[in-house]
Amino acid sequence: MKRGAILVNIGSPEAPTAPAVRRYLGSFLSDPRILGMPAAVRVPLVYGLIAPLRASRSAHAYAKIWTPQGSPLTLHGQALAAATGAVYATRYGRPSLDDALDRLGDTDEITVLPLYPQYAAATTASTMDALGEVLARRVRVPAIRVVPPFWAHPGFLDAAAAVARPVLEAEAPERVLFSYHGLPESQVRAACDGALTATCCDGQSPPPFCYRAQCLATTRLLAARLGIDAPVTTFQSRLGPAKWIGPATLDTVLELARSGVKRVVVLTPSFVADCLETLEELGVSARDQFVAAGGERLVVAPCVNTHPRWVEAVEDLLGGAPRPS
Question: Which domains does the chain have, with CATH numbers?
């Protein structure tokens, strides 16, 4: 059998310009998994209001982290795919899942790894939606295996600890934050079929679809590896007026600065590749606001990117799928 593998991440605009970002935001925010409202309301709202208003500001943020070779997220994804013998694809933008399937050619079996450690309908399920749509347009459809969320995989945790440990040793922070991408409370509640309270996920074995519980469990496992007492879990990247799970990373950072904390290190275990959210939202914007509020240093540990232990973990998650010829 001819087998192949695809690694899928969220994606980036094609350039750090307002037109490119507007196109990317339009595609991203039009996904019903992102904005849960009828298409008749969602599409005009996204293309007529949200994307045009946010494009210039987001393009300015992307420009701060853009490299001569392109988006950091894309570069790390492509490097990881090359190291593991897989093909890289994005949920929104290029290279697309169609592009990835074309690169693999006629294949009997494909393993798809969504690069999201914790399950969320807006990421994992949305990727599966897109995969189904792409396959529905094809006559030759291979067998598909989708790798489940890997927040508890020892290789992922080892890699995350390995990249964080030198930063923690160098910075000797007073506080360590574990910052995860946020979600609207309504999405979390719908996925876990439970009443969402401040402590409902504490200490429990995470259900297979509860994003918040999986994030808290990731914090516990990583903190144990790193010897961190009383770790703080926060959530970033709020969008829109809906109530999101908290506490919010930026609010926490400002509270720490105002209370006299001078040195903070932030770990980001819901991201496997450095991107806008880690490099600019935390590494530039949150850092600057922390200092303005009285703090001295806020340092963001790198993501696992292409750390050798993470490469090994991806190969294990893919089940040793052979490199495409």
Answer: 3-149+308-317 (3.40.50.1400), 154-300 (3.40.50.1400)
